[in-house]
Give the backbone structure.
Amino acid sequence: MGREHWKRIWIGSAGNMVEWYDWFVYASFATYFAGAFFPDGNPTAQLMNTAGIFAVGFFMRPVGGWLLGRVGDRRGRKAALTLTVTLMSASAVLIAIAPTYAVAGYGGVLVLLVARLLQGLSVGGEYAASATYLTEATDPKRRGFASSFQYVSMTAGQIVGLGLQIVLQRTLSDDALHSYGWRIPFVVGALGAAVVFYLRRNMLETEVYEADETGGEERGTLRALWRHKREAFLVIALTMGGTVAYYTYTTYLTKYLSNSAGLSKETATLVSFTALIVFACLQPLAGRLSDRIGRRPLLITFAVGSTFLTVPIMTMLKNAGSFWPALGLSLLALVVVTGYTSINACVKAELFPTGVRALGVALPYAIANALFGGTAEYVALWFKDAGAESGFYWYVAGCAAVSLVVYLTMRETRDLDLTRMTASETSTLTTAS
């Protein structure tokens, strides 16, 4: 890839990192601010309340996917990416200044809810816009490698959030973190978004989008997407298992290790931080492998591993007891998940023609995340509160099994020419050759 391609990938990834830092930092700091917005009581119940608001953000993602996917297809990938980071900056500011229950009662919860709704809108469009941009902005023979940087940047955002949490844990007392320290990462997120806004204002549009002259007034519309409804349903089905597994071993992992496995918050955070660094490094390697052997082998490997290993991994994690066993098991889980995360962005983008690609990725992916990814943490805590925590392990494995069926029956997408896709070409992708 040339220098200009690397520049596009860097700008798209940097913005994605800040977007997902703001998104995930809510989850990683929830153990510190859960008690600030709700009355004193059962710590698990407080976490369930904050997890519920976290899930609400996911239910706004289909709306954001539709609105910002439409912008991406009609106005360009650059316009959509600039708008998403603006919304994310506003939401970070709101959380940073939200009043606590002691100051404003449930008024603080309302501010928190509005902020999460804005984040849901933003991320609903961010995923598709960045997936489409990274897929279109590189050499066709390296699309898997280039698009893998979406999850590199997503994970980097979480690593930065966890790294900041570790620093704050070592420089502030536990009381200070619960009192005001949890606001600091949201201030940092708002400042980072301002920097990315400048970068995205000066980014270049992709040649694939600029050269496309099809679609006309129907470009980026639901009517146009309906012509590719089989591909849209395919995106929902292939996302189901991957998004549940991803959120289980990333956003929920720290809480699980501290709330269920009995590790200290500091140890649980360090386990997640270390595992995610390794996970981020694996993404380009797996993406490059998919450019050589295809997307389906990696997706199938993920689904088989997640179906059969989730229950034993989660069971052993609960009894890990210390840093090293917990880290080893977490790494094993994330290696399995890499088969999905490293390539899912380009697989979905490869399913649709240019005029409806952003919307085609955004809306069905956001629906799948609202139903499965965003609720994963809440479902896990619900099982725990009901005294049947192992039921969640089987739930994750079951979702992966459903996606496995999809991976086994879909066709390979690696060699598709994004500039020559027609409705007849894309309609053949849902049936294995």
In short: The chain has one domain: 3-206+227-426. The chain has a mean pLDDT of 87. Residues 107-136 form the longest helix (30 residues). The domain at 3-206+227-426 is CATH 1.20.1250.20 (Growth Hormone; Chain: A;).
